[in-house]
């Protein structure tokens, strides 16, 4: 695009998808317009497109194949000049052993056993979930009632060079997960994700691209006790990385259970769907505007403010 004022700097912004979904799954369809309304011009690219490395700001949105290319992805993330969320956060959050950090910092998390490659796996009595420690979209996650089958699946994952998580199956998951969305570190909105894992012995059904398990989503109005789990998780990240609220452009905290004993299942800081499509138009416009304001703030604090004059 030819700019009318070549003496004015227009930051080049990329929303990063993946080869199978270079423009995401449609949930973020309004972000380009919301950014444009703030005078910011953004385009979608697959994260592995070389042009991402010359962008002024790259925003991770649908990089849902990273678990199959994790070392390549993390190397790329470190090479991007300005990445949101930051490469430091991405590296920490791609490995679900972050649950141990959150647990130590007082966040109520689902009980989790973590087993490195080559480490002997143990499973508690009863139904369990076994999943890779690095994974997205429920790929590799399965439920088991038979301990030997659970151990066999864990061994297969370790044989692929993948560390393993083992969690007791919480029957409350049948009611779905509450996804709490934070934008610029503040509460934004929430939605419910229907149960993704089928009964023991079966694998999840994936979308036609094979990048994520299909799920049923619906709007939600969580109780404050559930939001508190999200607030604790976001606060833990801010303390762990010595960040301000605005440093965390987006976060999604997935919680199971109701007000009595809500537990964090996952904290998504890399590429979570933010459920914009679950909002009415007025609320969606507001949430997307908050996202755009957050991007604008990131640019300003990085010395890449929109429409700032630059010497040529």
UniProtKB/TrEMBL annotation:
<protein>
    <submittedName>
        <fullName>Glutathione synthase/RimK-type ligase-like ATP-grasp enzyme</fullName>
    </submittedName>
</protein>
<keyword id="KW-0547">Nucleotide-binding</keyword>
<dbReference type="InterPro" id="IPR053191">
    <property type="entry name" value="DcsG_Biosynth_Enzyme"/>
</dbReference>
<feature type="domain" description="ATP-grasp">
    <location>
        <begin position="99"/>
        <end position="304"/>
    </location>
</feature>
<dbReference type="InterPro" id="IPR011761">
    <property type="entry name" value="ATP-grasp"/>
</dbReference>
<keyword id="KW-0067">ATP-binding</keyword>
